[in-house]
Amino acid sequence: MAAVPFVVGDLVDFFYQPRILALTHTFTLGWISSAIMGVMYRVVPVMTKRPLRFPRLARWQFWLFEIGATGLITHMLIGVWEPTWMSAAVIVLSAAFFAVNMLYCVGPAWHQGVSETGMCMSVMFLLTAASLGLVLALDKSYGFLSGSVLTNLASHAHLAALGWVSLTICSVSYRMAPAFLLSELTLPRVAIWQLYSLAVGVTGLGLSLLGWIGGGASIWSGIIMLAMLAYVGVLQSLVRNRRISIDWTMRHALAGVVCLLLSIGLGFSLLWIDPGSAIGNRVAGAYGVLGLLGWVTNLIIGMSYKLFPGFVVGVRERRGWPKLALAELSLLSCRPVVFILLNAGVLTAAGGLIAAHVAVAQLGALVIALGGLIYVAVMARTLSYAYRASVPPAANDPFRILSGSS
């Protein structure tokens, strides 16, 4: 977040630059993928009632991922490609270790549970996107790939952003949203077909952009658009049939859906606008901002408000540390500030990019950074109590209530 205001000016000029690539992977690997993997390590074994088959492998996976992602981002930033593809190879190995544990848990429920089916497919997309990223990095050194650099890059980006990240978010949403909302509606059967349609569309789009199949990207983009609109419809029906009021988790989810719809529109427009042109470059930049910061980041922040304090409580209980209530781990007063700053900043930055107003885009980036850094500080405080036995000052109140820790 701190780097965004310093890089957004480059994004107005051309998105395929070392600093843009490094920052994008800081978000996609360092923030988004790390958060999703952490949630899946907690949620999937509980959801499937199958503990991790190889817990030691999970430790290796964590450190390999951190080393690989840090190395890739650093060497991508300075434009040195041999260490970049070596780091990418480490990430592929880490993704394979992650897949071994996740598929052991969710594989037996393939085509039986909606969320389990979606996560099975998303883990395979993670492996595919990571492997293609390695191939693209190798190509920078050895130049063996045919086709356009931009279309090859677009294939990798969509396999990662739609196949891995968005498919996982849809799958987790189908498990979490009914519980968060206490919805009276049973998850409709269309949900599982929405996941299949998204997977088919992303596969087709990825292969089409690589030039491996014919038919054009427009058909596959249309399938993806319909699949994501179906997701919005399912989520809307759950919200409409809720039994509790909308909280900040669902506000972030709804704001994310708005950004998703806007990014779908911009992504579809790139079928007719050359991404290498001046206007195409600006649209592609806004598409990325709305997708990564508006859609995905909103969803992760919203879910983190519900999930992360509970994770910390569970860790403290297993270690025998003093119990804490969920409310004692959360600074609720900061949530509206984060929501307003993040979403106002995303819309302002995206608008500035499309209009080629650097000052407006930088203002939006500053607002995003402020909201993001406030969130980071607040959530770092919450997560820190999983690593120390001390308690927040509010926990010393003799009249405090521990019902949230049960």
TrEMBL record:
<feature type="transmembrane region" description="Helical">
    <location>
        <begin position="354"/>
        <end position="378"/>
    </location>
</feature>
<feature type="transmembrane region" description="Helical">
    <location>
        <begin position="195"/>
        <end position="213"/>
    </location>
</feature>
<feature type="transmembrane region" description="Helical">
    <location>
        <begin position="285"/>
        <end position="308"/>
    </location>
</feature>
<feature type="transmembrane region" description="Helical">
    <location>
        <begin position="251"/>
        <end position="273"/>
    </location>
</feature>
<keyword id="KW-1133">Transmembrane helix</keyword>
<feature type="transmembrane region" description="Helical">
    <location>
        <begin position="87"/>
        <end position="106"/>
    </location>
</feature>
<feature type="transmembrane region" description="Helical">
    <location>
        <begin position="329"/>
        <end position="348"/>
    </location>
</feature>
<feature type="transmembrane region" description="Helical">
    <location>
        <begin position="20"/>
        <end position="41"/>
    </location>
</feature>
<feature type="transmembrane region" description="Helical">
    <location>
        <begin position="219"/>
        <end position="239"/>
    </location>
</feature>
<feature type="transmembrane region" description="Helical">
    <location>
        <begin position="157"/>
        <end position="174"/>
    </location>
</feature>
<feature type="transmembrane region" description="Helical">
    <location>
        <begin position="62"/>
        <end position="81"/>
    </location>
</feature>
<keyword id="KW-0812">Transmembrane</keyword>
<protein>
    <submittedName>
        <fullName>Uncharacterized protein</fullName>
    </submittedName>
</protein>
<feature type="transmembrane region" description="Helical">
    <location>
        <begin position="118"/>
        <end position="137"/>
    </location>
</feature>
<keyword id="KW-0472">Membrane</keyword>
<dbReference type="InterPro" id="IPR036927">
    <property type="entry name" value="Cyt_c_oxase-like_su1_sf"/>
</dbReference>
